[in-house]
Design goal:
Elements lengths: L3 H8 L12 E6 L6 E9 L2 E10 L2 H14 L4 H5 L3 H7 L11 H22 L1
The chain binds FE2/S2 (inorganic) cluster.
FE2/S2 (inorganic) cluster (FES) binds next to α2.
Length: 125
């Protein structure tokens, strides 16, 4: 069902766990299956210097979250917001159609965590 790239990413996911000092955290749920994704960002000068995730999700959710975190580490928040679930799916060489909804979690968590960062920044002023 999954291609080799997805299995590899799922078997050895990157950036798993909870950051010690995040300044942007996003938690989102998947309406289709009820699974949850939590993303932690450490942002300095609008650049994502560190990122991690935790999920109660399936293999596709883990593989896409791991890929998404690799893609956004070291980039500006503006560029991170341009990383769509389609980019992540393409990077993984595709997902079975019934698992495409799982890839939405990582993207939505990135958006939510950046939103949280922006809100924290406003509240700090
Ligand atoms: Fe829920 Fe994949 S089945 S995230």
């Amino acid at each position: 069902m999954y291609n080799e790239k997805v299995i590899k990413e799922f078997s050895d996911p990157q950036n798993v766990g909870e950051l010690k000092n995040p300044n942007g955290v996003g938690t989102v749920g998947n309406a289709s299956c009820g699974d949850i994704m939590k993303l932690f960002l450490r942002i300095e000068n609008d650049i994502i210097v560190d990122v991690s995730f935790k999920t109660f999700g399936c293999a596709a959710a883990i593989a896409t979250a791991s890929t998404a975190t690799r893609l956004i580490k070291g980039v500006t928040i503006e560029d991170a917001l341009k990383v769509t679930n389609q980019h992540v799916v393409d990077e993984l060489g595709g997902l079975p159609s019934q698992k495409l909804h799982c890839s939405v979690l990582a993207h939505e968590a990135i958006v939510a965590a950046i939103e949280d960062y922006k809100n924290n920044k406003i509240n700090d002023k």
